[in-house]
Fold these 4 entries.
Entry 1:
Amino acid sequence: MYSREIESLLKKNKIRAGDRVVVKKGRQQYEGLLLPRSEAGDSGSLIIKLDSGYNIGIGFKGASLEKIKGGGKGLGKSKEKLLKMDFDKKRPAVSLVTSGGTIVSRVDYKTGGVYAVDDPREFLRTVPELKKVANLSRVVSPVTRMSEDSDWKDWVAIAKAVHKELKKGEGVIVTHGTDTLHYTAAALSFFLQEPGKPVVLLGAQRSSDRGSSDAGMNLLCAAHAALSDIAEVGTCMHSSISDDCCLFIRGTKVKKMNTMRRDAFRPINDLPLAKVFPNGRIEIVNKNHKKRSKKEAKLDVKFEPKVALVKVHPSADPGVLEYHRSKGIRGFVIEGTGLGHVPTKVEKSWIPGIKKLVKDGIPVVVTSQTVYGRVHPSVYANLRTLFQEAKAIPGKDMLSETAFVKLGWVLGHTKDLEEVRSWMEKNVAGEITERSLPETFLY
């Protein structure tokens, strides 16, 4: 609540949060929507959302407040009539699969955090340009949650929804929370290896009601990507902190590289598939991509969730492997150092534990925590011990997250160790490149 003085004035003038007001203080005048006071804010300051989308706090002492026309009830919620999306049926049909996340969230002005909108169509109304691009009238929501709470069952639900929608239009757009978007992108890449049409995942680093939101442009570019000739699963989000274009990145080669920046998603050990501009121009960057076809997408969601992703560090205790095994883990991805090293010639060597796991038929895949580059099984003696003697599986240039998802998918099909090795060392969905190109580093 605001201070007693402000609350009394608001009550007297029948002003409440969501009403449009004018605040005059000295020679300055501010106009916008009155917001609830933040729980951590100054009770003596009014919080106004300006037309620019930004919020401003104004000390009320010496100020006047007047209600004007233009506000509305239900701050942060869209009226039912605004949820009716009148798309042009003559435009190519594209389905929207929503699963929660910041992109379908709004600010909770009392806490400063965000909450999911009641209806995913709410955020579509902020991008009127979509009507000129595609007929985005179909909106389905198989999952609704913030991405940090997601699990493998959500990947399956989303994949099934996408597979169904691919039969009804030219492409599919999937909105998702950014924290684990790259895991889901990898999962869909394996669950839908030959989609025949674009499957475009996107999120937003900032909610759609913020002035600096990236949601609108990401969605617009994703719509263009969904109508392109690039028939792959990928992500489409800002290429820089500016609003110049988005990068369409292969789903098995993308990683969130920053907590806050709008250009957080970058291609790793690969070039982006394309640059996608808001005006519809598409600049192909990686010519090694699958093209649109009339083949019907195949759905393959067999998955073994009992896989562990373990990070090596100095003085790391190899007992962590046995601990996970005691919990029923059936496969490991170890994120090693450098070219794929684990502690070897030390008292707490990881080699005996890895040997035991492999001997018992539990696969151990090794990736590198350097992010860029690839694991090499024979450069150093310790690497030869790990890969030749202990029989660990080199993850080549796969991202650790992608290797984690792939191993779960492979184990969903076979538990035979040699078959698992063969699948993990083979490129299935663009997750492994034949050689490392220098221009892919820090793209």
Entry 2:
Amino acid sequence: MENKIDWISVALYAFILIFGWFNIYAACYDDAHTAVFDLATNHGKQLMWIGVAAIVALLITHIDPHIFSSTAYLIYAGVIGLLILTLFIGTATNGGLSWIKIGSFKFQSSEFAKFATALALAKYMSALDLDYSQLRTKIIAWTIILIPAGIILLQHDAGSALVFGSFLLPLYREGMSAKILITGLIAAVLFVLALLINKFILVGVLAAIGLFYLFVWLNKRTRTHYVWVTVAFLACTAFIFSVDLVFDKVLEPHQRDRIYVLLGKTDDTSDTGYNVHQSKIAIGSGGLFGKGFLNGTITKADFVPEQETDFIFCTVGEEWGFIGSLVLIAAYISLLLRIIRLAERQYSKFSRFYGYSVASILFLHFLINIGMVLGLLPVIGIPLPFFSYGGSSLLAFTILLFIFLRQDQERTTPI
């Protein structure tokens, strides 16, 4: 028997969506454009996209959920083809080549790659005879993730490519070794340290840690211990000295500058660090309760570029204050916890893995977007899900979420 759709998730989705539109309206508002449905403005276009997203969500809830599993690889292949096509006919925007333009309409293909990859990976990881411990399984799973991420990197969109790291969490839930997560964390720390301090000093510190582990920490040493410590030391050393190459060749100049500002290597509040500087001023000026809807002075004066897209959260901070910001964060956390709870009650491996993928993708977007607006993370240009202005991201996130909610409606039936 088919279950009802999870209305708690739908309500949280709708609240974030509507609250987001009000803040987009505030960010775009001026005396010349006060009409709510004005397609000449971003808030008017967003209202149109909200209507489209609502129709798409309704359609998904009436589709046979088995279709998503049976066509997962086909959807994935189609989106990969679209990503490749973008490399040849894409339109450059903000340094990235990730948009396809057809007349006055344009969309970002990388946004749709997220749910397509989640479907393909869920399909593969739910195979009945799959052995998670086999090297072949790991290689295929990571290939499914790295193909779209690699193509998106070629589009010079490192921010969107980074989001594909979110699939670590669902893989870990399904049996991936925690050593991979720890290795990833160590690599991130070494990357930052290699940018901050002399590389030879950093290698010397690692050598000291290795010697301490071998001759002080361990009571009994075997040949295996010596081999693993040596291999780990050489791997870390090679990684440290390759950081500059990756930093210079993979990241765009403006992205490198933003990381330097975040790490304190440069202090530039008039150019590279301008957005974050003004964003923090706007958020701080809101105080506890905010200045009120449409009363944000920094918002009205357009001091923060991209305020209706990547920096939309500073509008919340200025006009709705700490309380409004807390309400929005609570709504996101509630939605994420709800998705995880729904994922855990799935009978199907496909649905469970896909649910965890949805939660992980939304969480990484939420964490990075708010972190960069507050100056805690580098500005890499990814939207706040369901909240930022943008038809491509809103439609892609809606599809991502409602495919899972449709799966949950038939959780008693293996898919």
Entry 3:
Amino acid sequence: MPTLSPAAAWGILLIAGLCEIAWAIGLKYTEGFSRLMPSVLTLIAMTASVVLLGWSLKTLPVGTAYAIWTGVGAVGTAILGMLLFGESREVARLVCIGLIVAGILGLKLVTK
């Protein structure tokens, strides 16, 4: 894979984070990897997420990229958990999700 421009690396990292959300939510639907199609799709999303993260690391600092990747995954998964599975929407939980978003934005702003 060719080296990425910084803008492309950030875009690839965002897609990797979205794939992380997909596999985390997908795990719920696999029912312990006992359902074939959700399991296959979850494994594809897992693979894509890690491969895209690795590709973005050719350009981005590992600490920043990894923190943003996990942050995007955590925030997206928490939000979808609320929307799809009726998980808690307590104010304290939403504040904590907001803090993760602030951390992601902060890391992006201080990284070239």
Entry 4:
Amino acid sequence: MTPQEGNKETTIRLLDAAFNRKDPARVGSLVTERYIQHNPVVPTGREGLVGALPNFYMVIPTLKWEMKHIWAEGDYVIVHSIYDFGKPTAVVDIFRFNGDLADEHWDVS
């Protein structure tokens, strides 16, 4: 398996754990401690991300994620998905990896 294939698999596991399985501990195991979050709604750092997720589940109990496309190049993975935030919303997530863990994240919806 190439590093890019491994990063794509990790990204799928991360998003599935965060938004379908609602398992913040699993999400925390897939990101670096210093995880940089560029979405102002979610705090930076592993603890910030893991701590923010339960609030999302409480506010949006029907939250779901469905991947449509995924690409990887170098240390980056880009995912086009449909999130159900109460209504279907197209989102593009961009992750930068450090080794086999997600180290940085951007999103556009």
